[in-house]
Amino acid sequence: MQQYEKYMRRALQLAQKAIGNTYPNPLVGSVIVHQDRIIGEGWHHKAGEAHAEVNAINSVKDKELLKQSTIYVTLEPCAHYGKTPPCALKIIEMGIPKVVIGSLDPHDKVNGKGISMLKEAGVEVVSGVLKEECDELNKRFFCYQQKKRPYLILKWAQSVDGFMDSNFQPYAISNALSQQVNHQLRAHEHAILVGTSTILHDNPNLTIRHYSGQNPIRVIIDKELKIPESFKIFNQEAVTWIFNRKIDKEEGNTWWIKIDVEQEVLPQLMDILYQQQVQSLIVEGGAATLSHFLKSELWDEIWVFEAEDLVLHQGTKAPELKYQPTSVEILKDNILKKYKKDNLGI
What is the pLDDT of residues 255-290, one digit of tens each? Predict the structure, then answer.
């Protein structure tokens, strides 16, 4: 089992190279081993392109070695025709006798079918190797498939006495290192959401400036269309979706999405994001928007950046959490407290 884990860890490293770039597909890495030596590696780069197993197979110089090799893959090989042929079929065609798998694929078109196809063809299959790490890698994809909504990360910055601004005016709470971590988070996730008040108050860009990657989709709840079109969220740097009660139209990279005034906003929002294949969403605020998600128990992770030496005395009160953090990171004079719902047993 230790040998299996050694090569699966390498496959996990490869899969992580594409984080933020494969939506709506999962992250997958693959390694091919012959006589305890890696002869092929690959990962899925982005949707529509070759899958990890195919890239790993293509990287092997002597294809005859495949017939005496083991292929490691972080996620069950697919068994259906999509934009690319089934990876399980490719493995069988190449004569690879053994497959080691991390996670099973919850997608209804796979979900055990890949393993069944392999076994029926006489391929030896070992599954569940580093399952927890492989599941964590694809927490967004799994949540989307199983809960029919994006993976939700609530995030805010606060002073040590629990305020999000100073005297109800914008205030730079996060240090440079925290800002870099925040922008890395934006690069990894599919979309980012804020409410009307935050936009009118801060006029944020909601893009990546301190990290390389693709800008997330900007999701704005602006029921009465109060935000002027001169504001930064309407620039051409990223796609913007405006959830509102008045109009439904598309113009450039902005889409105004009309919601039902008689129904609650969050269930409609979750349903539309699911239909649009958005797999993860950062909720950045403000306080009222964050509170709505918390009261609805709509979250998977919470990230709180706290300035440990900053006392503001007065301003917008940050949400109060009754849980102990599942992890704590020191970012110079900031502390990042993370709460993961699964680990808290909620």
Answer: 999 999 889 999 999 999 999 999 999 999 889 999
Beta bridge partners of 124: 98
137 C-beta neighbours (distance < 10 Å), count: 24
- The string of pLDDT tens digits covering residues 306-343 is 999 999 999 999 999 999 999 999 999 999 999 999 88
CB of 186 within 8 A of CB of 268? no
Residue partners of 165: CB distance under 8 A and separation at least 6: 171, 312, 315, 316
| pTM score of the predicted model | 0.93
Q: Which residue has the tokens 């509170």?
A: 291
- Give phi and psi for 245, each to the nearest 5: -105, 10
The CA distance from 10 to 252, in Å, is 41
Per the rule left: phi > 0, alpha: psi between -120 and 50, beta: everything else, 169 is beta
| Residues annotated catalytic, as ranges | 53
Strand ranges in the chain using DSSP code E only, listed in sequence order: 29-34, 37-43, 70-75, 98-103, 124-126, 151-159, 191-195, 217-221, 240-244, 249-251, 254-258, 280-285, 301-307, 327-331, 334-340
C-alpha dihedral over 176, 182, 186, 187, to 10 degrees?
A: 60
On whether the CB atoms of residues 184 and 318 are closer than 8 A, the answer is no
